[in-house]
Amino acid sequence: MPRFTAARVCLVVALTLAGCVATPLAELPERRELGLPATLPPMNRFGAATPERPARPNAQMAQDFLDLSFAMESGRTIDRMSRFEGPISVTVAPGAPASLVPDLDALIARLRREARIDIRRVEAAPGAASITIETMPRSQMQRRVPEAACFVVPRVGSWSEFRRTRNGRDLDWTTLTVRERVAVFLPNDVSPQEVRDCLHEEVAQALGPLNDLYRLPDSIFNDDNLHAVLTGFDMLMLRAYYDPALRSGMRRDEVAALIPGILDRLNPAGAGGGPATILRTPQAWVGAIETALGPGTNAPARVQAADRAVTIARQSGLTDARLAFSYFALARLSLSTDAEASIGAFQAAANIYDRIAPGGIQVAHIDMQLAAFALSAGRADEALRLTTRAERAAVAAQNASLLSTLLMIRAEALDDLGRPGEARAVRLDSLAWGRYGFDGNAAVGARLTEVSALSR
To answer: Which of 95, 236, 260, 408 would disulfide-bridge 451, Cβ 3.0–4.6 Å?
Structure first.
C-alpha cells in the first residue's frame, strides 16, 4: 500500500462476486442475443440496512480495535490515535455518478444512528468540508496509485491538491494527531455497487481505523472484500472510536486502558470473559494470498500460492477466517482446472465459515458457486435449495451482484424443473438487481449468458 492511503485493493478473482468489478465487457450490439428483454426493469436498490450486532466477546474486539487503530495496512505503526474533533461535514465534488449521493446519504444516516457520529452532508466547494469525495475514471486513479480500487488521503481536499503534494510528508497518516481535512477518491466508471462499496470502506477509514485485518469474519476492515457495506462490528468500532472517553493524540497504551470499559458500556452483551488469545497473521501467509489474488501472476502460480496459503494457515494453527479464506481462494482459482478439488475446497471453507459466521455472506458466496456446479450437473433441485438459502444473506449484506447471480441460477433451475412462469419472474428480478450490481447492461447480459450456459 502507498504510505499515505488506506486503499481498497481490487483483487483478481474468478467468476465470483466478492471482489471489485465484473469482468470488463465491450458494449454488445444485440442485447436480444443474450436473452435480455428490449426494455430492462428499473434498477433495484436496497432499503435501510439492519446489521446484526457483533456476537464476539468484547475482550476479543478490544484487541481488534487496537490492531485496527494503531497500524497501517502496510504494517507501519501509528503512534497516536487521530480522529475528527467536533461536527464532521462531507461534500461531493461535481461529476459524481447519480447513484453516489443517495448511497452517501444512506451511509451518513447509518453513521449518525448506529455509530452516533455527528456527521452531515453539505453543499460546499471541494476542500471546504471535513471530507471531500471526488470521483474520476479508474484509469486516472491508478496512474497515481496502481492497483487501488479507491483510496483516502489526509490533509488534502481535491485531486489536484493531492497531485501537487503526493510525495510530501503531509500525506502520511502516521504524522496526524487530529484529522481536519480528508479526501476520498472513487472511480466513476464502475457499477453503482462498486461505487457504494468503496464509499463505505473509504469514508469509514477517513473517520476511523486505517488498518485491515484478515482475521475478522464480520467486518469491512478485511481485505478479503467479502463484506460490501459496514457491518454491526464496524459501526461498534466507529462508535468506540468517537467515544467521549477517547481523544486525538492518545497513545496505544492509553487507549488500551480505556477501550475494554468503553466496549462493555456500548456492548453489554459482550462483557465478561478473560483476555483474548489471537494468533498473529504470518507475513508468509499474506504474501501467498496476495500472490494468489493480486495482479501479475499466471493461473498455475495463483493456484500454487493459494495452496501454499492453506498450508501456512494450517501449520500456524489458524482455524478462523484466515484458513477459511485460504480454502475459498483455492476453490475459486481451481474452478476451471480441477472441479473436484474446487468443490472440496469450497466445502472446507464452508465448514469453517458455518462455525465462525453461521448464515453469513461468506457461505452465501460458496452456495452460489455450489449452486452453479449443481445446475451444470443437472441437479436443479439442489441449485434451487442452495440459492434460496443464500438469498437471505445476500440481501442482509446488500450485495446486489451476488443476489442477481443467485436469482439467475434459480431461474435456470426453475426452467429445468418445468416451471417457466416462475422462472421468467425470477429472471426479471435478477436483471433489476444486476443493473445495480454490474457495470452496465452489457455486463448484466454477459452474466446472464454465463449462467444460462450452465444449464443442461
So the answer is: 408
Task: Please tell me whether residues 322 and 422 are part of one structural domain.
Answer: yes
Cα 270–chain centre separation: 25
Asked if 228 and 294 sit in the same domain, the reply is: no
- How far does the chain reach from its first CA to its final CA, in angstroms? 45
Longest dimension (CA), the chain: 65
* Distance (Å, whole) CA 454 – CA 452: 5
Burial (Cβ within 10 Å: 0-12, 13-18, ≥19) of residue 340:
exposed
Sheet with 131-136, edge to edge strand ranges: 8-9, 148-154, 182-187, 131-136, 88-92, 119-121
Altogether, the residues listed in the chain come to a count of 456
Reading the block at residue 292, the C-alpha cell is 494468489
Helix or strand (DSSP H, E) at 149? strand 148-154
pLDDT tens per residue across span 227-265 = 999 999 999 999 999 999 999 999 999 999 999 999 999
Do 190 and 321 reside in the same domain of the chain? no
pLDDT digits (tens, 9 = 90+) for 319-378: 999 999 999 999 999 998 999 999 999 999 999 999 999 999 999 999 999 999 999 999
In single-letter form, the type of residue at position 311 comes to T
- Beta carbons of 400 and 49 less than 8 angstroms apart: no
Residue 166 pLDDT? 73
